Amino acid sequence: MVSVTIIVVGVLAFAALLGWWLLREMTSADRMERDPQYRGRVMRRLMLSYCVLGAVGIVFWAVQLAMGEPPREILYILIMALLNVLMAIRIGRNLKKTPPV
Question: Rounded to whole angstroms, how far apart are CA atoms 101 and 38?
């Protein structure tokens, strides 16, 4: 009975977190339409987070490889990490510097 209660509370907490996150994204998207400097900051932050995520995945893969035979799932992490880095580079190339208003 306790495990069912924990699952229900966990699902409700996750739903509340997801709703809060979606509300913040809606207000952020509205502000991005009005303010090009804010859009640039958000895109640079997104690019940096993709690069960090990719670098962590690559380092984790390299550590597993150095310790011995890595599990097969590590290759999926490496592929996702490389895709994240490539996506960040692509976002960075398309990002144009906007003059201050």
Answer: 11
Q: What is the pLDDT of residues 82-96, one digit of tens each?
A: 787 787 777 767 766
Q: Please state, in angstroms and rounded to a whole number, the distance separating the CA atoms of residues 58 and 78.
A: 6
Please say whether the beta carbons of 80 and 57 come within 8 A: yes
The amino acid sitting at 62 is A
**Residue 72 identity (one-letter amino acid):** R
10 and 25 part of one domain: yes
Regions of the chain short of the pLDDT cut 50: none
Regarding whether 83 and 67 lie in a shared domain, the answer is: yes
| pTM listed for this prediction | 0.49
pLDDT at residue number 14:
92
Q: What is the 3-state secondary structure (H, E, C) of the chain?
A: CHHHHHHHHHHHHHHHHHHHHHHHHHHHHHHHHHCHHHHHHHHHHHHHHHHHHHHHHHHHHHHHHHHCCCCCHHHHHHHHHHHHHHHHHHHHHHCCCCCCC
